[in-house]
Amino acid sequence: MSEPILTLTGVSKTFPGVRALQNVSLALRPGSVTALIGENGAGKSTIVKILTGIYTPTEGEIRVAGEPKSFASPRDAWAAGIAAIHQETVMFDELSVAENIFMGHMPVGAGRLVDWSEMRAKAAALLKRIDAEIPPEFKLKRLSVAQKHLVEIARALSHEAQVVIMDEPTAALSANEIDDLFRIVAQLKAEGRAVVFISHKFDEIFRIADDFVCLRDGDKVGEGPLSDVTEPQLVRMMVGRPVDQVFPKRDVPIGGVALSVRDLSNATEFADVSFDLRKGEILGLYGLVGAGRTEAMQGLFGITPLTRGSVTLEGKPLSIRSPADAIHAGISYVPEDRQEQGAVLSLGIRENVTLANLVKHVRGLFLSRPSEQDETRRLGRRLAVKAANWEQRLGELSGGNQQKVVIAKWLATRPKVIILDEPTKGIDIGSKAAVHDFIGELAGDGLAVILISSELPEVMGLADRILVMKEGRVVDEFQRGKWSAEAIVGAATGARKEAA
Amino acid sequence: MAGRAIKTRRLIVAPPPLTPSLKGEGDSEALTPPSPLWGGVRGWGYVIAEADPASGQRRMRNVLNYRELGLALVLIVGVGVIGAYQPVFLEWRNIGDILTETSVLFMMALAQMVVILTRGIDLSVAANLALSGMLAALVSQYYPDTPLVLMILTAILSGLVLGMINGALIAFLGIPPIVMTLGTLAVYRGLIIIIAKGDQVNASEMGVTFQAFPKMALLGLTTPVWIAILVSILFWVFLNLTRAGRGLYAVGGNPVAARYCGIDQSRQELLAYSISGAVAGLCGYLWVARYGVAYSEIANGYELTVIAACVIGGVSIGGGVGTVAGTLLGALFLGIVMTALPVLQITPFWQMAISGAVILAAVVINARAEKRPDKLILPEARRLGRDTRMLRRARA
Amino acid sequence: RPARAANKRIALIVKNLGNSYFDACANGAKEAAAELGGIEIIYTASAKPTAEEQIAVIDAQIAQKVDGIIVSANDADALVPVGKKAAERGIKVMSFDSAIAPAGRTVHLSASSTPLIGAKQVQMIAKTLGNKGEVAILSAASTMTNQNSWIEAMKEEWKKPEYAEMPLVATVYGDDQDDKSYREMQGLVKAHPNLRGVISPTTIGIRSGAKAIVDGGLIGKVYITGLGLPSEMKDYVMQGACDSFAIWNPVEYGYASTMIMADLLNGKDAAEGAKLSMGKKGETTVGKDGEAVMGEPFEFNKTNVEEFAKIF
Amino acid sequence: MNAPISPPPETRYTVLDAPRRGIRDVLMRWEVILVILLAATTVVNTMVSPYFLDVFNLADATFNFSEKAIIALAMALLILVRQIDLSVAAIVALAAMGIGYAAEAGFGPGALFAVGIGIGLACGVFNGLLVTGAGLPAIVVTIGTMSLFRGLTQVVLGDQAKTKYPQEFLDLGQSYFIKMKETGISWLFVPPVPLSFLIFLVLAVLFGIVLHKTATGRKLFAIGSNPIAARFSGIPVDRLTFLLFMVSGILSGLAAALLTARLGSMRSNIAIGWELDIVTMVILGGVSIAGGVGSILGVVLAVFVLGLVTFGMSLNNIPGQVVSVYIGALLIAVIAIPRIVDRLGLRKPAG
Ligand SMILES: Nc1ncnc2c1ncn2[C@@H]1O[C@H](COP(=O)(O)OP(=O)(O)OP(=O)(O)O)[C@@H](O)[C@H]1O
Ligand SMILES: Nc1ncnc2c1ncn2[C@@H]1O[C@H](COP(=O)(O)OP(=O)(O)OP(=O)(O)O)[C@@H](O)[C@H]1O
Ligand SMILES: [Mg+2]
Ligand SMILES: [Mg+2]
């Protein structure tokens, strides 16, 4: 076994009122992939931020190749050979791809002036190395999400760092893209670098990682080689109790048609989307990232204007021009972009939960606080939101807990149809099970559910039926029991049709 | 984007091949799906409009983007029309006057742009200009033997200090820029009264060289124009060729991302407001020396003209977007409007209404240019590239 | 001579601070106060030259129960209510420089009669140009009462046959801002290639206009005249941008106003025909609408400007 | 259910209904700071000037800020939802001009108020359409309309003034709406109240209730905090923003009517520069320029603080421009001091 390239000893980090990390130690070896696991809010991202000089630890020591280091800024971390892909997308839409890669460490030539041609050449080389021929002078805003992700990876590689940290890099990716990413990870490993990999998806962890470090509420509760543990053991370590890993599928009697969608189209993003959705049914919507699922469902929800199409709910034709219309009719949509579209970060949990259904809490002319509190408590407990109090600002919660509050907000509207767009993106396993269970329960109560997920096991585990979208159109439909993962992925990528 | 274009692959104008040839060649190619990670499927939609890098059009766009080209065009047509009515407007002398009159606006707008790039705003620039100008004038009045360079330096330094006060409180205490500079706007203007004891400094009280400098001409252009040219070049180099300059775009474009890239937002903000202040100081000297008077009311309300110039030039109030060329064009545009109206004998009462209308028109046009491109997911939309109007009409 | 008033406070409220003209007036007021004895002068102004702001300042003087208020009004009519309120509370109100409408004050002291000021300026430019050539007016803000009434008076004078070959071609506004006045002057010259003279009845307009003439190399081609301060105009007169200009002595103006206020405070009647003392400047007779006149505007040219530049 | 699933036990985390508030949290509240400031202003002014504590003087002082304060209420809501309206003063000018013409045409007081409000409304609609319809940044749009509206006033009015108004209209603006009444008890009396001040107080209560107690108010906070999420939550973001621009126009029109009645005259430079005074009131009132934070009580307190500071200083014959130095410094200090305290406070537990 080689010497650790980076060690953390007794690291603690406190925020006002929160102990995010407590006496955590870990060691990273070159040429190995260490998985960092833990529930939402366990402190994973906090470790990343300490290692990259964004937070300074309250206590503890960082050593790189045996040398004690303190990082005041990401520059110090880069200098020490540490680079990261952060959980939040942190990019500059208005700047070029090359600048996005080299921001903060642009190559300079004579007179310390930026050497653009060298920067472009280097960027092109880096992108080529990860099989992404994106022109380096393109403005980032012209790229697709997947391409942006590649740029972020190129940025992490640009430092030629010995330690590469990836905080939930796969949360927004689907199968093929994850394969590509793992090729890159394998390459890094082969080059003798240490990789830290954070994910809530255990199949990925077991596929790619060598070691694991498990956190729970800021404490390190376990570490070691992954070959020594089983998945249930890991989960138990993480959550502190056993959780059934298999996504449970409730047997729900499926009723009459709730929602009927015909020929939903807009100009450039999706066309001719038609389907029927029955009461109690969970309809999975699968596709590669960028297949237009989000757009189609946002069109249905009244966010983007339609050019064509009709929507009928329980036999009544609807005219949906805005989200307010949709909510009023009984359709809810849990958006995929939590930070921007879902959460109101500077308001409290209570205010977020009741936001989409304020009418319900109006007594006379005014809002009733007790009524709001009841609702918040009920939904918050049901979804196991972890917070200090129900008035806490959403921005102070971990990503996963924010997502739970956003889901609670939509459940509070008592919808007839709920569209869940990547509802468990970035949610830990215990909470995920709670969300799944809740989805099942809602279906049991006769709610019709549309579930968009890029996680195939999740869709296959929960859905009664799966529609597959590709390039803005529905290309295939699968019934429960008559599907296989290969067939679904094949439909999503277009390989199936060609092969046939 | 500014800077020299390096050789890039000629990008395709036709519909994309189904299987980009980036992955390894092989027999299984036909079955291998185009990897969306490399973005081929989506990516092509965006690159369709790209022309051959070698073509002149492309090189032109490296200097001026579409919006700036549009603005330049409007300017040329506008000047042509004005010239048709009043040929005197096109005389070299008048053009020289326009440039001289606008030189302060050029510099102030560039400095304001630097601040707006960081998502800030500096409302105190005009007050800073007036105060710094007053200080220079007082030096000239009471110490007439001071070398001119020192008097100009006094103005620049005073501007710099005033700008740094803004910058320090904004950067290190996180006071919102609009609040901070609204406050210092009042404070700096009031300080003029206090420092000068309510008095003004007249042309006859200022030194002769002090006033003569802005009137000197070289190759038909006055010193303020030359200074503006020099300052513009410095700004261009700073914003495009230095790390700190690019850092300003980063901080304004995405502050969190900038932090993750090790860019110190506070330091960038301090830098931006210091630049803004120093330029205001320099302009303070030029203003006072040129108009031959310093008192508390000079350049009253000028901050809004400066911001308007930025806005017309395509600087986004949301931060992170703006170019030197655009801002200069915006300032020139306002400069021409301000100097053309008197020449055209448009009744003075119309002037304000016209500049208001021009600002509104500019924002509306800029906003159209800035509209986020559609996501071209549908294959037929990608084939048409950005020009999806046809498709939209067909589908409606 | 015994003091005519004892321990009285007089507020001198002008349009804006930092204006040499009003500073000179205030010096005159203080001179009068010293001469009279027992009078305190409160010299103040609002931050912006608008009626609203000025009213706030006057309100504060009323609240302090000063004895008299002398105002150079930002708006003649808007100050009437507050003037009446002051009168109700036993405070004497008069205006100088820029008048309050008659209902809002007892007396207005004009530096000179409006027709006289208007005529004088036209005469000065006519003399410079030999009654020949295009002339334009460069005024301050279009909202200023005194500017507008002088312009009216100029147009009246212009009707005389001797000015037939000296047409008025434009009236522009520099808003009493140096840069705007400067640009307006440049614009005038370009829009009217045959322009020979400019009248600027405002101290800021005339100095910026004169500067534009000097900077534009137009000396000898275009002349400016109007109301200016010798200290500001001296150089331009010597350089030849301005042949002659006029103004009253602002120090005397402030002095005379204060003297009249002292009379009012002593209970002197200010009805039409009444005579009020202006101290060493003599007496003035109250005319129609309570208007009194101090004297004639004084003309400055190369021969005397340097001497007066030392004073104001 | 085919698999046993145990939802996380509820006892694992206790989540309180509301945070425990320390004395420091209460003291650091913006409104508390303002109350302290208000008290300090009153005490200092009373000590420095014998004329300060006088009902009539104070009532007169309210004349000079009430119109601005009325507009500040609308501005507070706009800033709360991340917008701003810099054209308010220009709207006042345009509306006042309309009132001037209407008065010449012989309209009565009620009709004159209606004209002012109507013109204000039209301007507000114009701003609102540009901002919400065309999706433009409000600060830029309203810098443009500021020039446009005042420019139009200048075009129509030129160098003229409008000075003829019916006496009943003038009385509304110039005399006390509620006359002072003694109650027999020496310290208890009905103070004199000008109409504009009364309207301000009534509107402030109304705005306070709407913002802090109703669903609409909550929606405004949500828009200010995250407009996109608000839209996804079914809140008609554009419609509410549009409405707020209309309210801003209406209140500017109302202020124009009150101001015209008070001045009895209008010129094209009426109310020039008010926009910055009004923004100052709102910001000092603790409304965050970043949106989503603020209270009407704060704005009302700030209005009083500013009004009394200005009045107190002019009682001491401090010239206007010097007063604005103090106000500018006050604005910065009041925003900066809590942040400095916060910084020092944060260091403690760490060190
Ligand atoms: N800036 C901050 N201020 C206050 N508390 C914070 C801050 N950042 C993180 N925390 C808290 O620290 C704890 C750890 O957060 P962290 O983001 O590291 O969790 P995580 O393990 O990455 O969770 P997730 O899987 O949801 O991303 C959480 O309780 C979080 O609320
Ligand atoms: N060019 C772009 N610029 C910025 N954001 C984009 C761009 N393209 C897509 N996105 C965002 O990325 C996310 C995923 O892409 P998209 O919605 O196009 O496809 P999808 O089929 O809905 O994908 P998903 O599998 O994530 O549901 C969405 O939040 C979308 O708004
Ligand atoms: Mg995390
Ligand atoms: Mg999506």
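qc> Residues A 144-145, 172, 287, 289-295, 336-337, 452, 454; B 375 surround adenosine-5'-triphosphate (ligand 2) (CB under 6 Å).
qc> done
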